[in-house]
Amino acid sequence: MPDCDLILPCRDEAAALRSLLPSIPPSLSVIVVDNGSTDGTAEVARGLGARVVTETTPGYGAAVHAGLLAATNPFVAFMDGDGSFDPDEVLLLLDDVRSGRADIAVGRRRPVRRGVWPWHARAGNALIVAWLRRRIDLDAHDIAPMRVCRRDALLELGVTDRRFGYPVEMLQRATAAGWRFAERDVAYHPRAEGTRSKVSGSVVGTARTARDFAKVLSR
Quick check: 76 and 4 in contact, CB under 8 A? Predict the structure, then answer.
């Protein structure tokens, strides 16, 4: 029986889910959080056997938190539902936490080819991570786009951001709590055709995300 819920926060990711969901290892229980989709994301997810949670409050953090509250297994994993990550690699992160080697295991994106990770998104990520490593001695090199930890421990961290600042606040709180990090390279693929990134899809999207990060970092 699965002991880990894989939470996929989604908004208009129906095109990606059609190929992503069948590729998820059966040892992971899947929760798709529909965050205001208009393309049938929820219907596609249900049709492919995923559990669907609806979160009406817009924002990445709101979707992630809704999935966390809905999870029932002792371990939780988080991954974008746009087809840019290989779900098999979640199992390696899960093993790091399940075995006790780490309290949280995170992925470090490695683009499979040029152009997968736009320059503005890559630059913004590098700046935030450099700042966190300098300020709080963060033991990671990416803003945890794929991550695994214990459900109860994450709830106890009390992350409050409900927008794109969620992963930054989570990393800050985890570091302050003395969590042990494990980091693994994960392949970063192009998004599925028919989907568009809310963050790296445009300079405006990246700027909006940077604003949310800045709010968290200024607390």
Answer: yes
The whole-angstrom separation of Cα 204 and Cα 6 is: 29
- Diameter of the chain by CA atoms? 46
Question: What is the rounded distance in angstroms from the CA atom of residue 30 to the CA atom of residue 51?
Answer: 6
User: What gap in Å lies between CA 1 and CA 69, rounded to an integer?
Assistant: 20
pLDDT given for residue 201 in this prediction: 47
Q: Give percent of the chain above pLDDT 70.
A: 88
Give yes or no for residue 78 having a pLDDT over 70.
yes
The count of structural domains within the chain is 1
Give 129-134 contacts, CB < 8 A, sequence gap 24+. 131/217, 132/168, 132/171, 132/172, 132/175
Q: How far is CA 174 from the centre of its chain?
A: 15
| Residue 37's CATH number | 3.90.550.10
Alpha-carbon distance values, 46 to 34, 52, 54, 99, 156 (Å) = 11, 6, 12, 32, 30
Q: Each residue of 137-186: pLDDT tens digit?
A: 888 899 989 999 999 999 999 999 999 899 999 999 999 999 999 999 99
Which domain does 157 fall in, by range?
A: 4-217
60-70 helix and 166-176 helix, angle to the nearest 10 degrees: 60
* DSSP-assigned letters across all residues of 99-165: TTS-SEEEEEEEESSTTSS-HHHHHHHHHHHHHHHHHH--S-SS--SSEEEEHHHHHHHT----STT
Please, what is the angle between helix 166-176 and helix 119-136, to 10°? 20
